[in-house]
Amino acid sequence: MNNPRTRTTLRRRSLLLAASALTLLAPLAACGGSGTAEGDGKTLRLWHYEQEDGALSKAWDAAIAEFKRTHPDVKVVFERKTFEQIQQNAGMILNSDKAPDVMEYNKGNATTGLLAKQGLLTDLTPVVEERGWDKKMSESASVTARYDKGEMGGDKWYGIPNYGEFVLTYYNDDLFEKYDVDKPTDFKSFEAALAKFKAAGITPLANAGNDHPAGHWLYLLALSKANDTWVDDYQLYAGKVDFHGPEMTYAVDKYQEWLDKGYFDKKDVGLKGSDMTEQFVSQKRPIMVGGNWWFGGLSTDIDTFEWSTAPYPGSEKTLGSGGNHWVIPTKAKNKELAEDFIDITMSDKIQKLIGEGGSVPIAAQANTITNPKAKELITAFDSYQSINGLAFYPDWPVPGYYDTWLGATQNLMNGGKPDTVLDELAAPYEKYVSTRS
User: Fold this and answer.
1) Residue 271's CATH number
2) Based on the number of CB atoms within 10 Å of its own CB, is 80 exposed (0-12), middle (13-18) or buried (19 or more)?
3) What is the annotated signal peptide range for this record (predicted)?
4) Residues with Cβ within 8 Å of residue 95, at least 6 apart in sequence
């Protein structure tokens, strides 16, 4: 329930499955005659799936160029894959002698955790400590890079994230000025702003019930009453979670209150995430709470009004984590070269490039960024990192839980009783936790 690029339709996935396996294997077979197979330290084979011309792709291009400069005798064989190719076929490829030396891979128990449990990924813990990568990110940002028996939050590092992702607030500054509404500094002033916009005949909050935003809102409200223990219990199974406890009860009650007051529009129940951003871009809604993955598109699409970003003022915790990361397959031939490349991606130069491009570098300070809007974004992310405020995403703990959250929030928006909604969320979670080995 995070970055929408990681969710494709079942139909598209099924059509790509066979083709992905073939296209993933074919170029590797062609490379079989190179010096790579011998692991002689003369070739680095690298895969990633970032879209060309995106902030991260440009950063990785710069990292490759820097690697070539510092390793003039090493040939870099780079292959751009699709997310689907790597997601669907990684286990098969990494269990063969065709594994790359380093590749970008998705975080989470069902992806990095699963491959680590299967012994297909290199334990990077000694390297992390030796090169100081762990000192460049917060504890909460590194949770999805560390696993134990396939579950995130363990002691062993299997991935290195270079960027972060999180949910924050987007404000239409012009509408705040036009309607003489003060920018919120805390939850009380946030609700005051909602009330003032509504009194002026404007629905204040953008939303989308048929996609991740509505569930993000519900989880964010729960996080506003949660502490570290609750997050660990919910996300890492550290203890029992009471879905009718104060955290989730507050969330459904406040959500229903805002629906009744018209701060959310009940008609948004059928909208997608892109519809939500259109509400903000078209100035129909002055406030949007959403992921930093919308930032780049908004920067491109908005040219008629002033807007800004800030942490959501109602909670010290938000949805977010370290981003997808670099992994080194167990069967990689040139692991030291892979480590050198990862080290370059963690360098000040590359981290700054990530930030200037509008993404969120995990190891760069906001004061080094010259792009003013990007600086706002990074400052907000850093504020959460500094207080262990990244609390992951609501659908992560249980396989298939995204659909449960989608249905439960739609039920709430359609007038369902809060207790019933909590029961909907509790049932699959409690069943899964009771059966996990």
Assistant:
1) 3.40.190.10
2) middle
3) 1-29
4) 118, 120, 331
Residue whose tokens read 């292959």 = 79
Amino acid at 127: V
How far, in Å, CA of 83 to CA of 410, rounded?
Answer: 29
Q: If 0-12 CB within 10 Å is exposed, 13-18 middle and 19+ buried, where does residue 183 land?
A: middle
149 and 119 in one domain?
Answer: yes
Question: Does residue 383 lie within any of the structural domains?
Answer: no
Could you tell me if 280 and 169 are in contact, meaning their C-beta atoms sit under 8 angstroms apart?
A: no
CA dist., res. 113 & res. 321, Å (int): 15
Q: Could you tell me which of 368, 370, 364, 369 has the C-alpha nearest to residue 382?
A: 364
Domain containing residue 132: 4-163+323-364
User: Could you tell me if 170 and 289 are in contact, meaning their C-beta atoms sit under 8 angstroms apart?
Assistant: yes
Q: Give how many domains the chain has, as a whole number.
A: 2
Residue with tokens 């999180």: 166
pTM assigned to the model: 0.83
Please answer whether residues 268 and 209 qualify as being in contact, where contact means their C-beta atoms are separated by less than 8 angstroms: yes
Question: What's the pLDDT at 1?
Answer: 57
pLDDT of residue 263: 98
> Does residue 369 fall inside a structural domain?
no
b/e burial code for range 184-215 (CB count within 10 A of at least 16 → b): beeeeebbebbebbbeeebbbbbbbbbbbbbb
Residues in the chain where the model's pLDDT stays below 50:
3-37
pLDDT of residue 5: 38
| CA distance linking residue 129 with residue 131, whole number of Å | 6
